Each structure stands twice: as structure tokens, then as C-alpha cells.
């Protein structure tokens, strides 16, 4: 699903690499936590996977494609097969819940009949049926993140990437959001999540990849947040 072969990324000539000789393979249906101190390279890994950035050296395969061979005009096509969830939700404030989710399908030209079934299905997945006509400011933080997850899932991606999705949420809300990611994963979507949420990582016992100064220092099945536990 994702393969990094000896990938390095240097943003500015002379700066230390944000990723430094990274080899990672993530299989279909896995749930992977990316952990590590601030600046260790987690977001860079996600941005390279999305092809928002290109590596300085090394090879990246995502969804069976070598990213260096995907021409720029085909990048949007590739991204349609991936969902992305951010820490700060990034919803459109002047649109309703339903419109926020539907828009993600409309902009890529999905037919009306698809949208009419996929949007309610996505809202049902995140347990927001009944709140279709609310606007983001009428929802709690956890509900807003659920809308963002519905938006990421509405085109039925094979891969869901998330950068600190619980970073703005309180602990009990975060648990609910993590259960949702777990359910999405069990239904067949590969999940890769960068997080600082140690309690949740310890509870969920999924694969943990730890980065330190751009290098993989730990790759553990059913792992915990900190290597010293
Ligand atoms: N666009 C950029 N231009 C220059 N340097 C960058 C850029 N993005 C990230 N960096 C640098 O690359 C390194 C890795 O950053 P990255 O954002 O990948 O870390 P992170 O582990 O996601 O951190 P955080 O947990 O704070 O989000 C850092 O030293 C950062 O300053």
C-alpha cells in the first residue's frame, strides 16, 4: 500500500534532512501510528505519501504506483484514492455538514446518484445522521472532526492518512474518534496516523513506527507510544 525505499527529504540545501534514509512498508489493511518528537518527520512522511512534497532521494510507492513516475496532472487522480484528516478539521464554515461532505464528491465529478447514496452513508459511518443541516460552528470539536472524517471517507478511499486528528480534542472525545478510525480500518481501509496521543496509542496496541530526527528508530507490532515502557 505504501513503500518507502531509502527515502530522504531535505527541504533547504544545507539543512538537516527531515527524513533520512527511511525504509518503511505498510501493507493493505494495516493500522499504523507514526510517533516521535515534534520535528521528527511525521508530517513530512504523510506529505510525501500524498505527493504534496517530493523526496530528495529514494523511491516511494503508494497504491501500487511509483510516485516519481506519476505526472503532475495525474496527482489529483491518485489523491482521490486517499482520504486525509487534519488536526484543525478544515471545514467550510458557511456550508452545512451535508454540503461539506458532498462537496468532496462533487469536486471530483462523481455522478449525482453516487453522491445521493455515498453522503448519507458517510454521515451514518461517523454517527452524524440527523445533523446534516448544521453548520460547523453549531457542532462540538469532536463532531466537527467526525464531519472531516466523513468528508475523507465519502469517496471510499483505500488509504486514510491523518495528521494529529485528536490534537484539538479532549481525552474522552479523542477516544471516540479513535474508535471511529478503528472501525474504518476494520471495514477495510488502511489507516496511517501521526499522533502525540500517548494514552490512545498505548490503549490501541497497533503497529507503531517511531521517528527520531528523520530516522526510523522503532517499528513495533502491537506497540506502545514510548520505547521505554
Ligand atoms: N516546508 C518546510 N520547509 C522547511 N523545513 C521544513 C518544512 N516542513 C518541515 N520542515 C522541517 O523538517 C523537519 C521535520 O518536520 P515535520 O513537520 O515533518 O515533523 P513532525 O514530526 O510532523 O513534527 P510535529 O509533531 O511538530 O508536527 C523539521 O525540522 C521541520 O522544521
UniProtKB/TrEMBL annotation:
Protein's name according to its UniProt entry: Cell division ATP-binding protein FtsE
GO terms in the biological process aspect are:
cell division
Predominant location category: membrane
Q: Which GO terms describe its molecular function?
A: ATP binding; ATP hydrolysis activity; transmembrane transporter activity
Keywords attached to this Swiss-Prot or TrEMBL record, sorted alphabetically, are: ATP-binding, Cell cycle, Cell division, Cell membrane, Membrane, Nucleotide-binding
Which subcellular locations apply to this protein?
Cell membrane
Q: Where is the ABC transporter domain?
A: 2-229
Summarizing the function annotation, the protein's role is: Part of the ABC transporter FtsEX involved in cellular division. Has ATPase activity.
The record ties this protein, via NCBIfam families, to: FtsE (TIGR02673)
* A Pfam short name: ABC_tran
Similarity comment? Belongs to the ABC transporter superfamily.
Membrane topology reported for the UniProt record:
Peripheral membrane protein
The UniProt entry's GO CC annotations, sorted and at most eight, read: plasma membrane
* Origin organism lineage: Bacteria, Bacillati, Actinomycetota, Actinomycetes, Actinomycetales
**Top-level lineage group:** Bacteria
* Keyword set includes Ion transport: no
Q: How does it assemble?
A: Homodimer. Forms a membrane-associated complex with FtsX.
Which InterPro entries does the entry mention?
AAA+_ATPase, ABC_transporter-like_ATP-bd, ABC_transporter-like_CS, ABC_transpr_LolD-like, Cell_div_FtsE, P-loop_NTPase
Q: Which PANTHER family match?
A: CELL DIVISION ATP-BINDING PROTEIN FTSE, IMPORT ATP-BINDING PROTEIN
Q: Which residues form a coiled coil?
A: none
Transmembrane ranges, per UniProt, are: none
Amino acid at each position: 500500500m505504501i513503500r518507502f525505499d531509502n527515502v530522504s527529504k531535505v527541504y533547504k540545501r544545507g539543512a538537516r534532512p527531515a527524513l533520512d534514509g527511511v525504509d518503511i512498508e505498510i501493507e493493505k489493511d494495516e493500522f499504523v501510528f507514526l510517533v516521535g518528537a515534534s520535528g521528527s518527520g511525521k508530517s513530512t512522511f504523510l506529505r510525501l505519501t500524498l505527493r504534496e512534497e517530493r523526496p530528495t532521494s529514494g523511491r516511494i510507492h503508494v497504491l501500487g504506483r511509483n510516485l516519481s513516475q506519476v505526472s503532475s496532472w495525474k496527482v489529483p487522480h491518485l489523491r482521490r484514492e486517499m482520504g486525509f484528516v487534519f488536526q484543525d478539521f478544515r471545514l467550510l464554515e458557511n456550508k452545512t455538514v451535508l454540503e461539506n461532505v458532498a462537496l468532496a464528491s462533487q469536486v471530483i465529478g462523481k455522478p449525482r446518484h453516487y453522491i445521493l447514496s455515498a453522503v448519507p452513508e458517510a454521515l451514518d459511518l461517523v454517527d452524524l445522521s440527523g445533523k446534516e443541516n448544521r453548520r460547523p460552528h453549531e457542532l462540538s470539536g469532536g463532531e466537527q472532526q467526525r464531519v472531516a472524517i466523513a468528508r475523507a471517507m465519502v469517496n471510499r478511499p483505500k488509504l486514510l492518512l491523518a495528521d494529529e486528528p485528536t490534537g484539538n480534542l479532549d481525552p474522552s472525545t479523542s477516544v471516540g474518534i479513535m474508535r471511529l478510525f478503528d472501525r474504518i480500518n476494520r471495514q477495510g481501509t488502511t489507516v496511517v496516523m501521526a499522533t502525540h496521543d500517548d494514552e490512545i496509542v498505548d490503549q490501541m496496541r497497533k503497529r507503531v513506527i517511531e521517528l527520531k530526527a528523520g530516522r526510523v528508530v522503532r517499528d513495533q507490532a502491537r506497540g506502545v507510544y514510548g520505547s521505554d515502557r
